[in-house]
Fold:
Amino acid sequence: MDSQSLILVVDDQPRSQVALASLLEPEGYRVAYAATGWEALSQMRLLAPDLVLLDVMMPDMDGFEVCRRLRADPALALIPVVMITALDDHASLLQGIKAGADDFMSKPFNREELRARVRTITRLNRFRVLLDEHRLAANEHAQFLWAIERSADGYILLDHEDHPLDGNVKGWHFLGLTRQTGQRSEQSFRDLVARLYRLAPEDAWTSWPDLSDTARYLVRPEGEDSALWLQVELLDLPDGAAGRRLVHLQDVTARVSAQRDGWAFHSFVSHKLRTPLTSLIIGMGLLRQQSYKLPPDLAMLTETAYSGAQRLRSVVDDIFRYIEAPTMLMPGDGVLLTSLPDLITQIGNDLGVTAIQIVASFSLDTHRLTVNTRTLEMLLTEILENSRKFHPHQEPTVVVELLRQDTRVIISMTDNGITLTPTQIQRIWEPYHQIDESFTGQVPGVGLGLATVAQICWATGGTCRVTNRHDGPGITVELELPLVDVNR
Structure:
């Protein structure tokens, strides 16, 4: 008996259905019914029964045809079928075998014999299903191992004492060892990599083998064979696994090299652009100071040229700040929340935004931001500068609220400047989108400042939002940034 088995009774006579149900349900089986061949095939697709008790003599489609159609359908072909028939001639038996029946019962059937056959077939079917599932899982596991073995990334399994237990070929190659399947390494993982690579950043490796919020790298500098950068990710394994943790080693040399080359190129171009621009602005500034000696039309032309040069420098600065945003994501000591009010006030004073009110809804002395000081200064400067730039008189009042949400801090900055349209709010984080819809160029910049803010926030695992004030003109900008405990 298997109380979990579902049996489909296919018979056009209600009396026969009731008779079979009275035998099966007391044994704990679940029973479903079909009165025609078409209904039987439909029920099989819907229910996937563990056994079908199929009457041979039915109108429209007899049991033989139902069985043939069932065996021809890949989704149904493995369902066991017991044919129940009043035919006892050899030809009918042979026809049933050819149709694909697993067993036969003759009417009138013996009650105990029927129960015994049903019990045996349902148990065998359960074992077959479990075996198929096991084979499928084993096949999928084998395919996974095949893919891991051919992966360009390295995988090393560590025990509870940080000693490598197993791994793929690439993982052992990165450790400078041949594969040691089933053999525990004599050295810890950290000792193995320390003799081959520089551990960067050093602070992140002092806590190994504990997890770290800071990315870890293994670096083989140029001149030692060839440069190699490996990004190291440490993954916890579920309880009961053979090892304690899995190390994922990813070769990021090409990415690091491309970043370095890109930064070198940006630095070169920035120098080539900013140097003549500085000379131009200084020269035009000196000429502007003497403009009172010039004819009025020439003095106006000098003022226009000087203003244009200033706007050009602002555009160049915005472009390179956006391009250089990835450098602001480099790991650092982070910023203590206790220093945040003074930093906001200082930046506001430098920008001429002096009407700033700072409110904190929680104690600031227990946490720090994960972003470094340079990054935070850039984010705050951009928001406060926009508050002044888009205020009708360039004299905004800004309310800064510091809110705590789990492991994040929300820096909410509300001004009393302009109100944005829904379209402007929707597109405000897009590169090169300016609030000045006519794009006249009268508003300084090229629309990269807030795009840079968004790029940095998202890359650090934070978010950013803009909404209009509800109690008057102005907007609220929220920067949501990750926190860590100051004692970590």
User: Anything to note?
Assistant: Confidence is low (pLDDT under 50) at residues 437-446. Residues 152-251 form a domain with the Beta-Lactamase fold (CATH 3.30.450).
